[in-house]
Amino acid sequence: MRLYSGRLFFVALLFLGAIQGQTTPKSCLLKPYRVLVVVSDWGDPASQVISEKDAFQPVAALLKAWSVPFDILRLDQQNLGASYLFERSGAARYGTILWLADLPSYAAKNLAALTEAVQQGTSIIVAASRFTDPALEQILGIHYKADYRAPNPVLRGPVHFITRELTDDLKPGYEQSLHIWVECRGAQALISQGRHPVLTVYQPSLDTAAVWIGLPDLRAL
Q1: pTM (predicted TM-score)
Q2: CA distances to 19, 64, 88, 190 from 130, in Å
């Protein structure tokens, strides 16, 4: 069964943008209407043309179709530092970070600035990623254990804003493709395959949320 859809992905973006509505009036400020897309690599050395050979092309196409402004940071050429995540004033530059990078692209990267950005109000969506970095694990509230294949039925968990519209459409099915096995450590599993979470949500700070989507492939979006 194909569980994921562009609609769920878009609703997740809306949720991350609306999380500030839960804060006090004093801190209820508009977040930057811009997304930073973090990718492992990019086929074009000049970082100008996104082709169908690029794994993140389906996501970039969705963002363009929805008129969501975004920048791309490629880990094969760049480092994720404070200069990318913050304005000169110290304010967060992006409302949401869309993390599409998988191992081993960020094994030697310093992600301290990512943690600081989340603390300053930048939310994050992680998709199709084995997030073994301790900073990513803490932000997401989950722990990566291994990859797995299983024929367990896909089931929804508690009703949530992100999955609310999927309530009537989601039917148990059987998936035997490769998936990512994670353990919740504070995060809430909204959709699971047997005992394996495949969609989680966590609130690492007052004004931010972190969503993990256990996609086997970004083309599933």
Answers
A1: 0.84
A2: 25, 26, 32, 19
